[in-house]
Amino acid sequence: MSESVDVVVIGAGAAGLMCAAVAGQRGQRVVLLDHASRLAEKIRISGGGRCNFTNIGTTWQQFLSANPAFCRSALANYTPDDFLTLVRSHGIAWHEKHKGQLFCDDSSEQIIDMLVAECDKGRVKRRMQAQVLALRQDGGRYAVDTQAGTLHADKLVIATGGMAIPQLGATDFGLKAARQFGLKIIEPRPALVPLTFDQAGWKPFAELSGLAVPVRLETGDGKRRGVFDEDLLFTHRGLSGPGILQISSYWEPATPIRIDLLPGRRLAQELVQRKQGSRQNLVTALGEVWPRRLAENWLQDRGIPPEQRLADTADRHLTQLADGAQPWTLTPSGTVGYKKAEVMRGGVDTRELDQKTMQARAMPRLYFIGEVVDVTGWLGGYNFQWAWASAVACGRAL
Ligand code: FDA
Questions:
Q1: Where do the RsdA/BaiN/AoA(So)-like Rossmann fold-like domain residues begin and end (predicted)?
Q2: What pTM did the predictor assign?
Q3: Which of 383, 392, 394 has the most ligand 1 atoms within 8 A of CB, as the residue to mutate?
Q4: How confident is residue 223, by pLDDT bands cut at 50, 70 and 90?
């Protein structure tokens, strides 16, 4: 069976649905393909089932890319307010959590239903469980071979996302397609992902599993420096929590991360000042600034008896003890990988794409949108905002 349309969009996730809807409503005959049985699985599970669908504070500076200014145009032309207008027009109730993060009051399914309704408005034909066997150029058009036949299209949009959570249908399809058509790739890696440590070295901290503390985290330098004030969570294998997920996107293998365990305060100074006439032991003193378990563990790891009295501890030892925590410098051995990552960083090199339309410079009428592109947002609704904005930029150009 062979069919001819204006546009084929591959990937019915956040970006693919949005792009298909926009192009369809502009009169293009669009077919949207996905290999999964259910569309938009990542929207479904996002934000704990309530979808953190955008961030009202979005600027281009919350995104990582080898070409950082690339995302500016698309983000400026489709803003969080624009997406909110759409959300409101579908009567979806929402609320702001902290730091500008917007969530559905009820369910992420509402965002999916909204996008499907927008696709229906544009008469988009949706084909699920569609295995794409090959992509070809055929007489100036694109041919998409599937198990159900060949689709011929003037324009081809790749919206197959990144490789995070393969168990939900994530693949490297988009990267392979880019390579096939001669586009460069920025090395992909798991991002927004827990970090792991050498298991022998981590043993003492594994006991803290489940403990969360507010910290300042930092890694890298120059343009690749990331700094975040967020919570950190101890786990059996290493560190997680929002702060670690954020910093993981900036982390380069074999480099350290720096964690200030008492942000905004000077622990050394406080301990030395508190010594005068104090009857406290060290674990009680540290327990006033940290959770008791961390205080005990910190002293134990350094071979200091927890009952040692503050007043009996030399200033320089107190300073050493505190300096080790401000910052606590440690080098992760790796990440827990794509199985647990929220996104992929890297992807199609944006220098290969036109920033206004997402079209490949060297391949007319071939487009890449969403997470498959080397634009990776911080945690907090930024990745969906990029999916919407890049999709709309492309959809308006089709
Ligand atoms: P997306 O992954 O949404 O869609 C890609 C589609 O392509 C999928 O439907 C897939 O089945 C399909 N596909 C893949 N390979 C294919 C192939 N070979 N053939 C055909 N189809 C194929 N972001 C945010 O801003 N706020 C949030 O709350 C969250 N929460 C969150 C939670 C979890 C657990 C994860 C894993 C991720 C998030 N994210 C997030 C990130 C966000 O989900 C992600 O950045 C966007 O979904 C990316 O949109 P895309 O459309 O590019 O890919």
A1: 6-396
A2: 0.97
A3: 383
A4: confident
